[in-house]
Amino acid sequence: DAMVIQNPRYQVTQFGKPVTLSCSQTLNHNVMYWYQQKSSQAPKLLFHYYDKDFNNEADTPDNFQSRRPNTSFCFLDIRSPGLGDAAMYLCATSRDPSSVDTQYFGPGTRLTVL
Amino acid sequence: GQQLNQSPQSMFIQEGEDVSMNCTSSSIFNTWLWYKQDPGEGPVLLIALYKAGELTSNGRLTAQFGITRKDSFLNISASIPSDVGIYFCAGLPLGGGSNYKLTFGKGTLLTVNP
Questions:
Q1: B28-40 burial code (b ≥16 CB/10 A, e <16)
Q2: What's the gap in Å between the CA of A103 and the closest CA on chain B?
Q3: Whole-number mean pLDDT of chain B?
Q4: CB 3.0 to 4.6 Å from A92: which of A7, A33, B31, B80, for a disulfide?
Q5: For residue A89, what are the contacts with CB-CB under 8 A and spacing of at least 6?
Q6: Which residue from B68, B61, B59 is spatially nearest to B33, judged by alpha carbons?
Q7: Which residues in B have their CB inside 8 Å of a CB on A?
Q8: How many contacts (CB atoms, under 8 Å) link A and B?
Q9: Which range has the top average pLDDT, A88-102, B68-82, B98-112?
């Protein structure tokens, strides 16, 4: 009954080698979010899609990009991962931006950068 | 930007004890959410609060939306080992803030000794 699915759960990449993380949802929610969470810290919003509209956070580095080819899928691309990008990456969805109580998180992808 | 002060940062308790944690803000929040995050997983919504003074329960969990709209607390009664995890408060500022972006507290790490 998984509603927000993230693949892979664990990803290892090399310094500077592009990596793509995947998120899919079965909720038919309009909004999909990507958060970065470092150890012992709160999730930090990177960006979100409201339908096809991309909303970037002001402090999200250009190294991070996202694609949403359809309602169900959203991808996080890290163009040139640095050691500081090692973190848990969480995908979340919500029905619409104001319905924060419908914001469901996926299990996350743990990214390791060697 | 908005900030939430969550305390305590960590708690070590014996099974069966009650637990209380809280979040405070210098500004008014419209919605308060409480999440639990197990190790290696995404946050799971426990309780959502929408009105000042609202008191809501979910099993052994009880949360309240402060009268001033600047704070919220979460109580866990008769703790059990599976309550272990990190508890995050999150809030939506009055008026929705920037793109209805959730503000997260830094989390409370709960350890329950059997």
A1: ebbbbbbbbbeee
A2: 8
A3: 92
A4: A33
A5: A6, A21, A34, A35, A36, A37, A76, A108, A109, A111
A6: B61
A7: 31, 33, 35, 40-45, 48, 50, 88, 90, 92, 96, 99-102, 104-107, 109
A8: 55
A9: B68-82
Q: Does A48 touch chain B (CB under 8 A)?
A: yes
pLDDT of residue A59: 93
**Residue B41 with chain A: CB contacts under 8 Å:** 107-108
Which letter does DSSP use for residue B40 in this model?
T
What average pLDDT does the segment A28-55 reach? 94
Ramachandran assignment for A51, one of left (phi > 0), alpha (psi -120 to 50 degrees), beta (any other): left
pLDDT digits (tens, 9 = 90+) for B46-56: 999 999 999 99
Residue A99: pLDDT band by 50, 70, 90 thresholds? Answer: confident
